[in-house]
Write a structure and sequence with these properties.
A six-stranded antiparallel beta sheet has the order 1-2-3-4-6-5, with helices on one face. The chain has a single domain, classed as Aspartate Aminotransferase, domain 1 (Alpha-Beta Complex), CATH 3.90.1150. α1 packs across α3. About 25% of the residues lie in helices and about 30% in strands. It holds the Pfam family TfoX_N. This is TfoX/Sxy family protein. It comes from Chitinophaga fulva.
Length: about 130
Amino acid sequence: MAFDEKMADRVRELIAPASANVEEKKIFGGLCFMVDDKMCVGVKADHIMLRIDPALTEGALEEEGCKPMVHGGKTMPGFVFVDNSALRTKKQLEHWVERALAYNKLASPSKKKTAAAPKKKAAAKKK
């Protein structure tokens, strides 16, 4: 199993009322919940990833089960992992999902990749 489906159901239940624009994408070997076109919460096999206020990251890392998100050898400010073992109760999961949803309102959407312009066909040579 690439991601914890029960955890995904629990997260889905908390995120669904937050916005009419919630999209689920399978990325990075897990399931990512995009809220208003912004990465918000990701679910993996044994932890969740959250996008939180970068100014609050240091304090969050002091909480049970929380660790920094490291991608490509770099610590990603504003992104944390929380172990499923620290998310056993609804209240524990709500605490983290609410943080991600609060920051989601302030976060900038990711830049949409634009499709490359179609190549112009060479003009036919006149004889």
